[in-house]
Design a protein that fits this description.
Blueprint lengths: L2 H8 L3 H9 L6 E2 L5 E2 L3 H14 L4 H12 L3 H50 L1
Antiparallel strand pairs: 1-2
Helix pairs in contact: 4-5
């Protein structure tokens, strides 16, 4: 199937599919005229890539774990597990920072409300 067909069947833009190829996440064969051609298996691969993006992984991280899918081996699995553990730690640190930011906003909101109430009380 051509790139437009793959885009239509996966709901992913042609631009994104080209980007996936540039990043080494997806491969295609080329016709003599240079058109990209994909297989039915590429539909599931694109969906898999999309799930990894939705999980917050970067294209670099996805590229580093795909060997576990493409060429399963103990070495590839170990490398993927290590990379995913690093990614989980990174996300956990980011979540911790977001919680601290939310807590600071909650404190500022409480201060602003107290100030507003004092202003109303003195105006009355």
């Amino acid at each position: 199937m051509r790139i437009g067909d793959l885009a239509a069947r996966t709901g992913v833009s042609v631009r994104s599919l080209r980007y996936y190829e540039e990043q080494g996440l997806l491969t295609s064969s080329r016709s003599p005229s240079g058109q990209r051609h994909y297989t039915e298996d590429d539909i599931e691969r694109v969906h898999f890539i999309q799930r990894l993006y939705a999980a917050g992984l970067s294209s670099r991280t996805i590229a580093s774990v795909l060997p576990c899918v493409d060429a399963p081996s103990e070495e590839n699995s170990d490398a993927a597990l290590e990379r995913l553990a690093q990614e989980r730690d990174r996300l956990s640190a980011h979540i911790d920072e977001l919680v601290r930011t939310r807590d600071a906003l909650d404190r500022l909101t409480a201060i602003a409300r107290e100030h507003r109430e004092r202003m109303r009380a003195t105006a009355a």
